[in-house]
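Support case: user asked for a sample of complex input and structure output to validate their parser. Sending the pair below.
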Amino acid sequence: EAQVTQNPRYLITVTGKKLTVTCSQNMNHEYMSWYRQDPGLGLRQIYYSMNVEVTDKGDVPEGYKVSRKEKRNFPLILESPSPNQTSLYFCASSLLARTLQGGITYNEQFFGPGTRLTVL
Amino acid sequence: GIQVEQSPPDLILQEGANSTLRCNFSDSVNNLQWFHQNPWGQLINLFYIPSGTKQNGRLSATTVATERYSLLYISSSQTTDSGVYFCAVPFNDYKLSFGAGTTVTVRA
């Protein structure tokens, strides 16, 4: 079954304790991305990756790191989590596509089930 | 960045009613997606619709890219349609910008 998986699904941790949220897709997608969802602020992009070893910042990258060593995996790393990183996190993936202008963009994005993180 | 506005913000429906949700965006886009976030928080793909009209069961969507809007139609609504509906468009080709969502409540 084609899918995006995230682990863990739920996590309660304490300030400063490094953690990693894993994301994996089995659709051979080039593009992967992380989002966080907060009440009143909606869904915001943290980081994205166009392919292996190619990553870039989204709108809210502070306090997060990512890596893309393999095409299927895109882990999100919180080196020193703080309470303001309490949120619902989503990973997504898609194929790349050509724009009408000849550039590159992402195609239909598929989302993982979400990881609910609480930092105390 | 690109502005994405959804209306109405909230919608209460009686089971069996039809409704239309709207998504306006401030710049030309190459694609647009509609999602449904169910009460358990999962984001479910509804439509990938850069332009034109698509239908999937009781749901259909129309995007008029030249006029910078998209519509999502829900017909014969059911309680399982409850949740938040988001539209999302690309920003700078590589980023995704979401609207604030429309919260739909369908009452039995």
